[in-house]
Amino acid sequence: MFTRLYIHIPYCQRKCPYCAFFSEEIAGTDLNAYASLVQHEMHLTAQATAPRQKLESIYFGGGTPSLLDPHLIAALIRQAGTLFELADDAEITLEANPGTVDFTRLAGFRQAGVTRLSLGIQSFDDRMLHELGRIHTSQQAREAFAAARQAGFDNIGIDLIHALPGQTGPMWRTELKQALNLAPEHISIYGLTIEEGTPFDLRYDSGSPLLPDEDMAAEMFEAADDVLEAKGYGHYEIANYARAGFRSRHNSGYWKRDGYLGLGAGAHSFLRDAGHGTRFSNSADLKEYGAALLNNTLPRQGIMKLTRADAMAEFLFLGLRMAEGVEFESFEREFKTGLEDVFGREIRQLLERELLTEDSFGIRLTRRGMLLSNQVFQRFLP
Amino acid sequence: MDISKIRNFSIIAHIDHGKSTLADRLLEFTGALSDREKQDQFLDKMDLERERGITIKAQTVRLNYRSDDGNDYILNLIDTPGHVDFTYEVSRSLAACEGGLLVVDASQGVEAQTLANVYLALDTNLEVFPVINKIDLPAADPERVKHEIEEIIGIDAHDAVLASAKEGIGTHEILEQIVRKIPAPSGDKTAPLKALLFDSWYDQYQGVIILVRLFDGTLKKGDKIQLMSTNKAYEALKVGIFSPVMVEVPQLTAGEVGFVIAGIKDVADAKVGDTVTLLNRQCLVPLDGFKEVKPMVFSGLYPIDTAQYEQLRDALAKLKLNDSSFSFEPETSVALGFGFRCGFLGLLHMEIIQERLEREFGLDLITTAPTVVYRVHKLSGEVFSIQSANQMPELQSTEFLEEPFILAHIHVPNEFVGGVLALCEDKRGVQREIKYLTQTRVMIIYELPLNEIVLDFYDRLKSITKGYASLDYEHLEYRRSDLVRMNVMINGEVVDALSLILHREKAYFRGRDLVSKMKELISRQMFEVAIQAAIGNKVIARETVKAMRKDVLAKCYGGDITRKRKLLEKQKEGKKRMKNVGNVELPQEAFLAILKVD
């Protein structure tokens, strides 16, 4: 069924104007109440799930999960350990906003059992942070990072966004240098996308001269690849870099199609089953989410049982995100048929265009292929 | 039937000046339209016509009216098509009448189109009297309009009827003036049949229905008739009038107007302007003015979804049943696949057909740039016509080319004269005359190449004059011209659907404009795309769409794979609507870019 647990905390101190993900401003909301709803959901799910699942990782995402008090995080981890079987070396990640944590709080999270911190730094340039509507400065981000180290976190990831309004190539290289100065174990790099319905959507027309154009954004992506690889960070997934041994196991599970259970309003799940797996999400309406649970029902919606073709497409467009790509053998193991038999024509075209490379083990994206990954992935859709 | 008690008339008006509403009032007043049957604007049958306020097919209706002089009259209202593209049809409808009501908007005054039709009516020796409509509107200025009518058209307007068709004001006076001012028809009902065919259409149950005006003779059910242009003979299966519903009558006699159903299968055999006579007792000379109507403007119509090809063919065939002036034949384009080359009388005719195809038949179409019929003179002495850039032969084998010219009458308020002159000059026009009709209204007369008109002349004229200009034109002759074929190439491949014939002097500018528009419309592909405009082998403009470099999805929060997949699906779906030229995906808009020039 699942080996990973995702817990969504859909609250932020303030909504960032570029973000399209499900989150609400906290504005005095009692997070104890929300945490107990999640606990109830975990309880109901565990009751409905047999046998007892073994968890390899837990991920607190959001929103801003670091708004939850450490004792609530501790309670959720403890409960997960009771209802399911928690692996000894389980990776337990918490996303933290630098503006919401200090040493005491971070030490509390560490003590609660969090093994990995994902720090949403986004930029080291205060003007950019201001434009992005972040609640912290670059100084606070550096302080939070130092405090996390002090609190005992030896596995810290940071997030950076490039192609920000007004950002130039040299500015981006400075950002990368600053990131390297912190010497984190893991770095995620995302290009800013203007999401529909966000305040940024109104602020920046597509093609706005304030936004770096496609070519510059591509150069920034490539600069990150050059700079970080040179410093020993492996580019193991389109948007992720890690020192050896510090890949995010939880996120890698998404690309490898491990089963995961999402708890909390708006959380997504993928359950492995006798068929090709089932995807669904929880209601992203907090009232609806709460009402369902108070009624002892699970707030699931959009339940989609994958067909074989769906699963094959996913296998490719998720697997190819990883540096290792898709192995012939693993595809054959999963679908009892050869990768070439199903996608031979598509693969040949992509090889010709140098978007893919191939060896005796499998296929993977070239650097150009990574930059144009959507164009590659589309070809595998049913 | 007492011929002295018949009045045949039509209503001459500019679009929007209230012709249809006035016709409705006349029908109501004379009891031709009972309340039960009442439907606004009875004469305009099709929705599209109603929406645009124009009439394409002439309608006719017989009104019975007891005049103030105590006599009963038969008034035949013969409607005329309302657009410049249908000038010939208008002239034939007018030829069926003895008189016309000139309807002029009380605030807007005389417009170019009104003028054109009034002149047509006066040329046909019709007795024309003015009706000033919409006098209920606050901006109405009937005295000024009367003055204009006398000044500009030169007909007496001192007793013009002041009317408001909307409010029903003036209807009785109009009917009285029709009786008083319009002469009764003359004709000999014992002479051999001589009738003007002034409209025809196809009815799916009865075949072709023709409308006739009898000048001499008598036509009875069962008569063997003959159409003089084709010499084909038919039996008059039904003879009747519109009241406004179809009513059979035992016979029609000289001076009368009515319909005939004669088992004609194809509307192309019932040509407007033809003379109907009796097979066994023929008139000696047919009526004047018959012309074969030929399409003047051509464009390619292609289904966006190639699966709609059959549907498009059936739809075209259906439209053709009712419209002999429209033509179509299969055409293949490398870029657009299978479609049809269609011929139209003019731009409006083209737009109407396109709209009907899309609206009534639910088709999604790509239309290629409209083109006129050019004449090619080859060095070998051979002369032939072409309707598409792709039919144009190599320049080396060509001695010269000719293009059709028109005479345009543009009627504008004087503050726009400068702008309109600049437009006409830009369109390679030759000025004939600028007439100040009044102190503020000007008639600009230009000779213009039709190919400049079919592209974007109307739109630009409208925008230059804020919609105040009206345009009317007639065809002149073919003139020798320095024409070239301009090709658009995408990565070296000629996109046939984008080829154009144009004047050499225009080519450089158009080429640059077109490729730069295409550049905006073609999204970046996996490789660089070169867009070139060329005349022969000479490239006159080039733009490059750089290769796509980055197309990556942002962070995947919390394992939301469904969202990622939906984005990919949306992208893929978008590609399906593209047309492929070589490896390059072109959006539909790229084919429309050629229609819009700044």
Structure description:
The complex is a heterodimer of chains A (382) and B (598). Chain A is α/β, with parallel strands linked by helices. Chain A folds into two domains: 4-254, TIM Barrel; 312-378, Arc Repressor Mutant, subunit A (Orthogonal Bundle), CATH 1.10.10. Chain A contains 15 helices and 17 strands. Chain A has helices spanning 31-48, 70-83, 103-112, 126-131, 138-150, 169-182, 199-203, 214-230, 249-255, 286-294, 308-319, 328-335, 339-352, 367-371, 373-378; strands at 4-9, 11-12, 24-25, 54-62, 85-96, 116-122, 156-162, 186-191, 234-237, 240-242, 260-263, 268-271, 278-282, 300-305, 326-327, 356-358, 362-365. Chain A is globular, with a radius of gyration of 21 Å. The model of chain A has no long low-confidence stretch (mean pLDDT 95). Chain B is of the alpha+beta class and 598 residues long. Helix content of chain B is 25%, strand content 34%. An eight-stranded antiparallel β-sheet of chain B has the order 11-10-16-7-8-15-12-13. The longest helix of chain B has 18 residues, at 504-521. The model of chain B is unreliable at 48-56 (pLDDT under 50). The chains are: A alpha/beta (382), B alpha+beta (598). At the A-B interface, β8, α8, β12, α11 and α15 of A face α12 of B.
Determine and state the CATH class of the largest domain in chain A: Alpha Beta
The CATH homologous superfamily of the largest domain in chain A: Aldolase class I
Low-pLDDT sequence parts of chain A: none
Strand neighbour order, sheet with most strands of chain B = 11-10-16-7-8-15-12-13
Which chains make the largest contact? A-B, 46 and 27 residues
- Computed structural class of chain B: alpha+beta
- End-to-end separation of chain A: 25 Å
- Which overall shape of chain B is indicated by the principal axes computed on the Cα atoms? globular
> How many strand units of chain B?
34
Average pLDDT level of chain A: 95
Q: Could you give the distance between the termini of chain B? A: 60 Å
Radius of gyration of chain A: 21 Å
